[in-house]
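Researcher: Going back to the complex we discussed earlier. I've cleaned up the inputs and rechecked each line, so this should be the final set. Can you rerun the prediction on the complete assembly and write out the structure?
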Amino acid sequence: MERAKINAGQLFVLIFLFEMGSALLLSLGIEAKQDAWLAVLTGMCGSLFLFWMYYRLYLFYPDMLPTSYMQHIFGPFFGKIAAYLYILLFMYNGARVLRDFGEMLVTSTYTETPLFIINALLLLIVLYVIHKGIEVIARTGEILFVVLYVLAVTGSILIVVSGLINIDHLKPVLEGGIGRILKTAGTETLYVPFGEAVVFFMILPYVNRPDKIKPAMFSALVLSGINLTITMAVNIAVLGVDLTERSQFPLLNTIQAIQVAEFLERLDVFFMIAIIVGGFVKISIYFYAVVIGVSDLFRVKEISSLIFPLGLVLLFLSMVIASGYAEHIKEGLRFVPLYMHLPLHVILPALLLTVAALKKRHSMNKRKQS
Amino acid sequence: MKTRLCCLTSALLGIILLSGCWSNEELPDLALVSAMGVDLEKDGRYTVTVQVINPGNVAGESTQGTGESASPPVSTFTESGWNLTEINRKISKKVSRHMYYAHTNLIVISEKLAQEKGILQVFEVLERDHEFRSSAKVVISYRSDAEDIMKTLSSIDKVPSDKIINTMKATEKAWGEHVSVSIRELIAKLVSSGEEPVVTTFHTTRNKGETLQSIQQTNPAGRLKAAGLAVFKDGRMVDMTTGETSKGIVWLLNKVKNTAVSVNWEGEKHAAVYDLMRQQTKVTADVEKGGDIRMKVDIAAEGNASEVKIPINLASPDVLNKMEQKVEETIKQSILSAVDKAQDLETDILGFGAVVHRTDPEAWKRWKKEWDERYFPDVQVDVSVDVFIRRTGLRNEPFHRN
Amino acid sequence: MPYRLRRLFRSKKQQTHSIADQKNRTPLETSLKENLKEFKKRTGNSSDVVIRTLTTGGMQWEAAVVYIDGIVDNLSIDEFLLEPLLQLQVPASPVQQQDVPEFIAEQVIALGGIDPVSDWETLFEAVTIGRAVLFIDGAAKALSASTIGGERRAVEEPPTEISIRGPREGFTESIRTNTAMVRRRIKNPNLRVKTMKIGRQTKTNVEIMYLEGIADNKVVEEVRRRLKQIDMGSILDSGYIEELIEDQPSSPFPTIHFTERPDSAAGNILEGRVAVFVDGSPFILHMPAVFIQFFQSVDDYYSRSFIASSLRMLRIMVFLISLYAPATYVAATTFHQEMIPTQLLIVLSAQREAVPFPAVIEAFIMETTFEILREAGIRMPKAVGQTVSIVGALVIGQSAVQAGIVSPAMVIIVAITAIASFTTPSYSMAVAARMIRFILMVIAASFGFYGLILSFIVITAHLCGLRSFGVPYMAPLAPFIRADFEDSVIRLPWWEAKERPRLISGQNSVRQGENLKPEAPGTQSIRKQRKNTGELDED
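Model: Rerun complete. Updated structure for the full complex:
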């Protein structure tokens, strides 16, 4: 483990930016039609439970990386397999996010630039920051957090000033009943974006004040959930359900609709900044988790020697996971939640927690007996 | 460390320098398309006319005293083909620059195309393309081709597309017979099941306004003028409304900002004029158990008495009350005529379906399919208008009172 | 492993060097003649070396006073050294020949600093800094008297840091004057000054100044350690020292702040920073420095807090403009024409129509021209400066536009950038922006805003990764420290700013008393008074 430490405020910022990352880009929970925002909110509430689970796990082993304590819980063989699965998950998710961003830029602005170049550039930046370590990622996150918030506030003001908000688009509320919302939350929003924060159990051991982790984690989750809810509600209120559903990047369309004083129009750059900032943090966190995971699992002392090769893997993975955007999205909606997110975000952590708790009780009983 | 830094730098330099510049375009290489017009040929092909800005003639050194420059502020290019993407590529045969659509703020659809083929196909590509602004306005050409509208020069606004948009906005604000509709709003209404769009139509005189001479007169020969509102049903233009009916539609869409309402007074036609300052229209639905649908339209309007032709005492509250009632009646009539028109045409341009959807989602599910044909024509509409005359200008009684 | 070896090797070498230094000293002779001969030989008969021979003690002792003309105070040599010696009569009790120097030092010379000198090396150290040395025949010892003086620049208004309000004096080239100016402001015995000599040839006096009990001891130690490691031939200015003790010399951003103003220096020392004075340089360094400090001007502290805060925010915004303005112009006109308002785009397009270069080349030409002009303007004598500005105005102004080589919009952008780059209070930070600007222009031309946003992230990450003597460079923004934030981007009124910067001072963080906020008389305070005296008893 790197000896660097981050504080609880930085953890908050990182979780927040991570959640906002690519989630801002997509039409979250649009299966629930105009109640998508409620689905996001429900997903957020559900994820509080997931987070509690990750937090409990951390409490059992506060000084250890998950890749180590999994071996502790499941024994060396199965533990290593589990740890390896997580590293693969993070790698794959990181590649997915990278692909999302590349596709966004290529579709919206850089139509003639090859996807590879766009991805390579972003990854280059990520490598640079990873090289500097978690402290620098966290500090950079703090500055970017401010940037993102300034943008968000300006954007909201502009949207309101242009008179784009049409509350009627959000009505009728609960048309499909609670069931539809729960279904959407359970199959989609719970995992993306909220469940994705499972990666933070790799980061938690780096926090300097363990007592402050809980409030930081949950408030970050709630704040990002609220922000995403607002974003989704605004998207629907501006564009209508149908357009939001058909749009590849609803937020981009919302921002393009801004028209203030016939002067401020086509503020695509706003969108680009928000997306790149969020994506950068998200990919960095995933990649950092991969790097420390690999170094911990395979006992590689020099973290910096891993960064380049793993970065190349991430880059090529992002290119080959899908041949086109449609395929990429289909994979993301159909296969990833079922075969990757459900087992690794929910089932395996639950299993880990149960076994860890049993082991602890067992050892305590033993101690009592002796 | 050093070697790694060198590797990184050289990789970075390589990427930057070798990549060259993919998506970039210098300003002088762009043809700024200000407006695009789409016509329908007899054989079903599209004809697209683009209006390209000549920047030098709009913003150039015209201040140096040569007066009007010798060439027009815009040029147009026409090409036909089976789809818009192809046409856009083919048009490069005629233009020396890359066609740039990100600043296109006006789409003109010819009446013929709107009536015969419908507009759905045209807007599919406009929505999909990343360059187009979704805030671009849409108009329908009335009794003229879209090409004619593209070619007509205008005098006050140098760029004709600006002229059309500004006219539309100004008249929407001041008179209230037209609405300006953007691509985004239009598509939203086209796809939603309880709403159909209306689009402003524009008219010009063919072959009159294409030369610079035409705008060197105080009364330009070819003139772009807002005509009426094109009414759509399932993506096809079915009729055009004008006058009071159009106004009624705009009232119901809650888009009236200012307008003038004249009322008859003791036998004298259009004797007193009410100048509307602000209004609020609320449409609510009342779905009864039996399936009868009643729409309630509540209008609260505020304004001034601005002109009287006959000597009536505007200082008297009683007179004003009477006038208020007459104005209310006039507004009501124009709204009812709009409702009649829409029900005749069996197209829900008034958005009643969306209101019903919000009020009673369950019932809406049953009605959705046949709304326009079966349910909408039978909807009962109650209109209640509340007009307030707040002020009467700088004078109380007219000077011709005796 | 190799690193450790190298270190081991180096430390041994240093040790042997210093031991040799002590051993190699050559003692003085007893005979005055021999000494003077040797002295002449060693100075090579330089013409500014003065040797004054005399006899003293009632004609019984041969003596000579040597000094270097120009760096000594002639008056004190004449009045307090030569005159007493010449008027000295035969002493009442006889003095042994070898004790004469002690006798003279104790009873004759009327100068403050007198040191005995017994070897040539010490003697030359003394002579070269402006002390006068007295040889006496028959003793293997000489006396060096403190007669340092000579012509020095007087205290003037600091030309590089001008303030509207606030003291008008600036540091000079004399280290003693400089430390005195700070001491005059901090009347506290805890103000420590430590001296060391750096530079093999120049033997420059370098002094560390800090406030014991407030400055972080670790930082003080670290500064001292880094200064000791310097093994240079010459130190002519504090710039040498800055470059040699920086944390990250490869970064374009400065991690050590310098100032020419004693009030600013005092303020920084009071916040717990360590100041380094270098003899011969009017610029003193203080460390640790944080990014935001380079945007603070002394005037901020003398003007009202609300105005100071808004000015600071303006400076940061303007700094970003000076970095990004030309790059943004290039990116917007070549990649993102859609975001430029239509009317503006038509105007820009009409202007660019006749320009033969791509936007980025145009920007490069203009920015380079401007940099050339600026460089010329700084180096030119004042009389010629006028010409430069006239020619410059022609080149990057009207004629360039009329010739159709550049567009008027580009001229405006360059002008904005130029003005913006002058608003950064710190010169070293402004220079950093100048360099980075060109790189950003290349990035903008290759990747548009995508590249610019990425570059922003890289710059931010780079800044966040920097440290200055252990303090994160972007503190108190990242890591965010609320207590330190009160004097960073904003400046809270003094009564709100109760604590010193935590990361810098490390100890003793409370700065001042409570309840400093002034209140209008007649309301609260009077009520309080009355209440205390019992005059007011209705509540």
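Model: Worth noting: Chain B touches chain A through 23 residues (CB under 8 Å).
Researcher: Good, that matches what I expected from the previous run.
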